[in-house]
Amino acid sequence: MRTCDIVVIGGGPAGLAAAIAAREAGISEILVLERDRCLGGILNQCIHNGFGLHTFREELTGPEYAERFIRRAEELEIPCLLETMVMDITPGKVVTAMNREDGVFQIQAGAVILAMGCRERPRGALNIPGYRPAGIYSAGTAQRLVNIEGYMPGREVVILGSGDIGLIMARRMTLEGARVHAVAELMPYSGGLKRNIVQCLDDYGIPLKLSHTVVQIHGKERLTGVTLAKVGADRKPVPGTEEFIPCDTLLLSVGLIPENELSGEIGVEMNRITNGPSVNESLETSAEGVFACGNVLHVHDLVDYVSQEAALAGKNAARYVMGDWKEGLRIQLEGKGGVRYTVPSAVCPENMEDKLTVRFRVGDVYRDRQLCVYLDGERISRAKKRVMGPGEMESVILKKSDLLARPGLQKITVAVEEAE
Amino acid sequence: MYDVLVIGGGVTGCSIARELSRYRLKTAVAEREEDVCSGTSKANSGIVHAGFDAEPGSQKARMNVRGNRMMPQLARELDFAFRQNGSLVLCFDRKQLGQLQALKEKGEANGVEGLKLLNGEEARALEPKLSGAVEGALYAPTGGIVCPFGLTIAMAENAAVNGVEFLFETEVLEIRRIDAGYLVRTNTGEIEARAVVNAAGVYADALNNMVSERKYHITARRGQYCLLDKKAGTAADRTIFQMPTAMGKGVLVTPTVHGNLMLGPTAEDIPDKEDISTTSEGLETLQSKAALSVPDLPRNMTITSFAGLRAHEDGDDFILGEAEDAPGFFNALGIESPGLTSAPAIGEYLAGMVAEKLGAEKKEDFAGQRKGILNPQELTVEERNTLIRSNPAYGSIVCRCEMVTEGEIVDAIRRPVGARSLDGVKRRTRAGMGRCQAGFCTPRTIEILQRELGEPDLAVRKNRAGSELLTGKDKEELKEAGR
To answer: How far, in Å, CA of B349 to CA of A25, rounded?
Structure first.
């Protein structure tokens, strides 16, 4: 069987950044397996700008951002197989993949980096009642049709869910000649970035209907309209608030789910909140030598953070392969009081770099609070936050020196608290 | 002029057509949709019932038991997914255990083999996730599950290979007696046939009533379903029915042949025979009722919900045979549950009657075997690689959830009675039937359909006319509007 030091599953932003970092750390045998026709992943259909402000201090489009990583991977001569689907990974890190030229083949990997990204939640997951006509698409599917295939999936559009893809597609559909009548959001706040609400809805006069949902789908062949209704605090429709909106297209932007079917086969421990693997400070899953990064780990808002996170995974996978790895204490890391989860969820100080970025989301909209970090009972940092919401990922920095200074440390906690 | 026109390309019509194709008869199937298996046959429980429900002596009982016995052999001949997983009817009330016994006796009177009464413990030993409230169960080892699309499409393909013509998007508007038989007026023109078989599902009453004074009345009885992710597929191995309780008629929990879990159906009489919409009340009801059988159902794993209409005839039995006052007009009417199970038996029974009426002889060259769409997942790695070398399309995954390759999709389109729409591809290959519900594969499948059908780009449809998936090209409308 063919062997390879590091096999990267996925050639999107996460996979590319991880592969590049692993190569830069000195690994010669790396293979990136990508299921699509080209590298870059979902960025290829994100033709709007706003990518790379953190990484390159420039405003790039998705394909331009991807291009920089693709070029770097080419410079480093990192081999990538395109249109290659990974079918299976064993706990022993045997990767089975398939493509048109090579058929089904197996590779014994020294380390595996999971970078498969995420998928969209479908209509069925919401149990929206009504007919099942043509014209109901997840926002990302519509984005691919419009931005890559060049086809319009509809003319008169309603969007359910105010996740970023939904917001971006409201603008895109408008620019391409469709009319977007409303974006309905079940929650009393948007799940997307503030800047997208301003630039994609407000600038085009598209109403954002918070605390609204679709309660009926009309039309037998093609969608003819949807009924929207207000929802109460229990998120159930309020009778009497129904409003019919004629439309031929409903786009769903109702959540992203990390694509962890392969991770499940290896048997890695999963986090119930993120639907991604639980990882330690090195972004290693519960399966030794199997790392995860990007949207397969937890869904990000900004690709810049994906790149940073993936680079860390790549670097650590390289350390693992080269044997530069320490077995040490595992300190539990968890969120409290509004912090829904943390990535990572465990830390071994011996293996961490001087600083570790802990990323997480909060469960509600919070104004004028502070983010605190506790080492066991002791608060070591607090940072005031004017506003935090589930739509924007937050982070705190842990210092290695702080952890090493406290032998016997058992638990690190990140919490939202009333501002002092 | 046809010898026989079968009206309706559902499981019943396709079964009759396939059985008719054994004879020297010029046969056609008229179907109003763009594909077979587009009405009641596409939206049901997919259960091969053992046969203890129907009243002894009824057509339902006879056809059910016969159909159940035919199914394993038919699945081998026609290569569709079928599994004899056994079924349980649960009883939650000690006082109702007598009814369970009565059900067993009814089944035995119908000729169902192997029925066994279990106490709660024994039932839970078979199905560990069953509710602790289960007091007893009737176990039927001959119960099974089948892919309703697989069964219907297999019979249609085999009928086509043996000479049956399929006339799609052909809706019957009127039927008149003529000297030679019947003149059937459709939206696409007139069709003459010596004999007509009415397998028109919820509309079979209307067709019968055009030619016969013995009037029938069919009520569309809607059943809503939830389909759960394959990860939930292990919640039950057997099909779990419920005894009717004070809370009403129960719902079933069953694995599907492809490893999903299905809950359903509701039972609602619907005035509109086109109303296959789901309702929030319906979906909630069936989820809570299903939880009586299996309390720990992972409801959040629902990937889709849908509804179908049962063709319920007032007399509560299948109406099978020649209309008394309309010679050469044969009914397969009121085909509700256990219609799917009964289809092979109904096909055999009615085709025999029609052939006798027309004095048709059996063909010597009938080809009864059919090979389904190749599923590369069932091959060894070596076999799979040989296949990919000979046809690289089998190395290209289009639907990542169900791991369906381009090769399978192309096969589905090119074979007899092939797919012509996104739903047609889905029912034949499962592309788009997985947990992302066609989010990723829709653009690729559209592309393959465009290429294979050679129709204009924008003509690709979800299913029937009017369900076009794309409305134009980017910026087209801006140019038209001069914006």
So the answer is: 74
